[in-house]
Amino acid sequence: EIQIPYTLSKTGSKIVDVAYRDRVQDLYQQTGEALYYTIDEPNQNFTLPMGEVYGMITNLQDNSANTSLTNLTNGLANVICMTAPTETSTASSQNPAVVIENYVNGTSGYRVYSDGYCEQWGFCNFATVNETTINLLKSYVNTNYLILLSLSGTGAGSSNNVHGQPININSFNLYAQSGERSKGIYWLTKGYIS
After folding, report:
1. Residue 134 and residue 110: Cα distance in Å, rounded?
2. Minimal CA–CA distance to 133: which of 142, 120, 144, 124?
3. Of 39, 86, 98, 145, which residue is most buried, by most CB within 10 angstroms?
4. Rounded to whole angstroms, how far apart are CA atoms 119 and 153?
């Protein structure tokens, strides 16, 4: 049995010094469970045991970039959650959904997770019209995505006077009454992409 000194976190996780990383990795490979997490306080680095993937990451500099990235991608497919949930969750602490793509440009952007979940956001200033169409950067699988809206600026106003309605998987209409138009509206959509 491998002995590893640890500190118990408030959430019950066993945190060990980075000096024991090899022991944590060995234990993970033997049991398949992430029982310990390593922390490198001077470098502010926190790591999870990842077995084969950890080796691929640390060896990236030793191999050609294309071979290493292919191996890493193949290894990650066995570690991270790549399947969208239905009535049952597909992600877990041993098989997490992780961010695989992100983009930010000023006030707009998106974040895509390995199971296909996507969040997209932006800002709209209406000026003189009551309705405008927002074109999404990523297409959702259907029109059942969530639209959240927030007024910007100060003063009187009500978020009840603004709303969004999906048109299709690529865009939605944003509506605002005249008193709310000049404030501008931050929007956020959430759902699964195709």
Report:
1. 14
2. 124
3. 145
4. 23
User: Is the pTM value of this prediction over 0.85?
Assistant: no
> With 0-12 CB in 10 A as exposed, 13-18 as middle and 19+ as buried, what is 124?
buried
Cα–Cα distance measured from residue 20 to residue 39, given in angstroms and rounded to the nearest whole number: 10
Residues 176, 178, 182, 184: what is their CA dihedral angle, to the nearest 10 degrees? -10
CB 114 within 8 A of CB 100: yes
For 170, the token pair is 């690529």
Residue-wise DSSP of 40-109: ETTTTEEE---THHHHHHHTTTTS-HHHHHHHHHHHHHTTS--S--SSS----SSS---EEEEEEETTEE
- pLDDT, one tens digit per residue, over 75-94 is 555 578 888 888 888 888 77
